[in-house]
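Record format v2
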Amino acid sequence: MKWNITQNSVARVSANLALTMILMAFIAPMLWMFSASLNPTATLAFDVPTNPGLDNFRRLGSWDQVIRPLLNSLFLAVVASSITVAVACLCAYPLSRYKLRFGTLFLYLILLTSGLPIIALMIPTYRGFSEFGFIDSVPMVTLYMAGTSLPFAIWLAKNFIDGVPMALEEAARMDGATTWQVITRVLVPLIRPGMIVLFIFCFVGNWGNFFVPFVLLLSPEYQTASQSIYNYFNNFGGVYYGRVAAFAIVYSAPAVLMYALISRTVGRSLSFAGAVKE
Amino acid sequence: MAPAIILLGTFLAAPIAYAMYLSLTNASLTGKAARNPSFVGLDNFRKLFASDELPKSLLLTLIFVVGSALIGQNLLGLLLALLMQRRHRIVTATVGIVVLSAYVFPEIVPGFMWTSFLSRDGVLNQILDFVGLPAQAILIDQPMLGVILADIWRATAFSMLVYSAALGDIPDELVDAAEMDGASYLGVLWHVKLPLLRRTAFTNLMLITLPTLSVFTMIFVLTGGGPGDESETLPLLMYHKAFLFRELGYGTAISIVLLAIGSMFSLIYVITLRPGREDRA
């Protein structure tokens, strides 16, 4: 028994030691971004700033290089993700509830396309967009981003709609609710957590997307934050590393915060246990 | 369902069909063949399969996927999930936040972080210098190693979450029973936990292989496929041919190869998952 305890504590110490080492390895590449962002005279090296300050953040006020690109990214990400969530839920509902003639085939196809390397479609998409004059068309690029995340979104939406017991809808119907009432009063409140999670997945993907706007949005006024920061790094990086780092932090914050938001709710909200008494 | 079908048709099905057509033409980005490309049959594919660049790029893509996804993300994710089991909440929360934030940074930001991390004056060389080791120029001497490490760093969170969830589903009684019978930690791991994770491992491998296959931004920012073509995986090769060398038709032929490899993996995944079955786990 005594031996067992020592063995246990050895195991615990070594596990914590290993975790700490992995943690440090994960933190090391991030160090520079934080140190440089606080250092007005930053280089590519990590150093503790001698006179740290928020100067780099204050100088980020450039409309053309920072604010407009951030707003462009925000617009693309919010609109594209909203379309994806709405369309995916509308599509997943009948797939989940009714035996459709081609339902299973459709699901197979959806699952198959969700695994395709979308990046391989960039050249034909670019070519098609330029044939139709869609290059620099924000609505078309938004729809494109919404469309390409659909397969994964429909799959996820079907899974969480499957999780809402039919019994709840039937009960509402028995009590005289119309289809519309069943959807708005029963289904939507129950799948709202799932919809939020899905929205955040899509938002974070669209917000961070580099390649699609890089190829399809060419005018400076439509540049997204990912393109702007890429140009910034290549053009001014050598001079203003500190500002690039500050820009990167501001640009990353929404994505990290949104994930932090769902990490708290996702486990709790996706289980509908308790809504139905077996 | 109509809006979904319209969007899927316009932005997924049409580009796939168009890719097949484009790959059979001499379409280019500029010049005469830009407006009126002519049909050249399988010329692009003949040229591609006769070239040295395809086998090299395929090999680099294979190295990247095996190194980053199959070995790196998969094993590190499993290790993290195992280490985090029954640890103090603060420890798991800290590790979770750090590893997960690497995963959710907008894809270009890790590119900058690793550019600085691996640069001549960067943190890695500062550490090596501190412990008395010579400085390294990984992105020049070992570009594949550099991009693989960076991608493992970026993407491990996904495998960690998948394995953590699966480990959480293993009933405590099984582990307790094995421990009562005198099994050591490694014994429990080898005879109880790992066999139960087999299905999860397969799903995880498929789910991480596909996105790793199409990693573009990380490599583009870190090495641009270079030096020379030393880290030019298929997405990079495709991009260079189409947009740098302006050969859209030829570049699309590479897309088709990439698409074919992706569909193959995806198909294996779909067949094993069988969405119609209720007992999927």
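Residues 276-281 of chain B have pLDDT under 50 and may be disordered.
Residues 63-232 of chain B form a domain with the MetI-like fold fold (CATH 1.10.3720.10).
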